Amino acid sequence: MLTDRDVEFYREQGYITVPDVLDGPMLSRVRQHVAEICEGARGLERHDAVYDLEPTHRPDAPRVRRIKTPHLHFPFFRELAAYPPMLAVLRRLLGPGVRLHGSKINLKAPGYGSPVEWHQDWAFYPHTNDDILAVGVMLDEVGEDNGAMLVLPGTHKGPTFDHHGTDGRFCGAMDPAACPGLDFGAAVPVLGRAGSMSFHHVRLVHGSAQNLSTKPRTLLLYEFAALDAFPLLGVKDFDEFNGRIIAGEPTIEPRIVPAPVRMPLPPALGQGSIYENQTAVTRRYFEFRPEPALADR
């Protein structure tokens, strides 16, 4: 599904969008699973192992901003991680051996979908090499007005920025005032039709604004690593680690490539999803309005 020029664009810019990777029937199936899972948040009063809730969530009016690690809780999403058209792209970008690192579903509902501050995924999970990327499966049309992911092209070749708060603990966000070399105004929105997928490098600087439109933006995210990339924080369960292999055979020979690393330590006091970690941020780039008046738009 990728040409050599596409691969070169990814290498130089740090991201690429591939249209229509999910066909219509599969897109409908994924959407149905997400809707059923979201309904399960009814009655919840706080975050749990599956649901990360919007600040304006109520048990009788559920508002979910993230479904955590769906591949662990719902077999369908573990199976989807090996979806052949997506795997074909991954092999072009990562090589023949591919391991699933993690998954999540970020939901930006119309009018209140939360922003995500600028960050690099690499800050959360540094490895022995950086042949790692995230796939954004667009379950809705993503336009410029409904909370599209914003990227700073080429930043995957630069430094690893500080993602710690004023208390010295990891908060999962960059302080824009402490990054004078970055032009956040030059950010590029990653847009696409429902069924398209974006692929962005683990070191690419990215974030997203609140969804103030009348349209939803649901993004299923998978993180994948080359088979010989080993996490610097260690492997707790080697069988489980190998059980996430999507393509290739297990190895005990990590490939070690110099890359700028900052460890995500000490962890946040409220360690959890990126949304929970970023509650410790004192200087924000993206505004959050709890209840925009959509009727006035």
Task: Explain how this protein is built.
- There is one protein chain.
- This protein is of the alpha+beta class.
- It has a single domain, classed as q2cbj1_9rhob like domain (Jelly Rolls), CATH 2.60.120.620.
- Helix content is 19%, strand content 20%.
- The protein contains seven helices and twelve strands.
- Strands 1, 2, 3, 4, 6, 9, 11 and 12 form an eight-stranded antiparallel β-sheet that branches. A four-stranded antiparallel β-sheet has the order 5-10-7-8, with no helix packed on it.
- The protein is globular, with a radius of gyration of 18 Å.
- It starts with a helix and ends in a 20-residue tail after the last helix.
- The model is unreliable at 293-297 (pLDDT under 50).
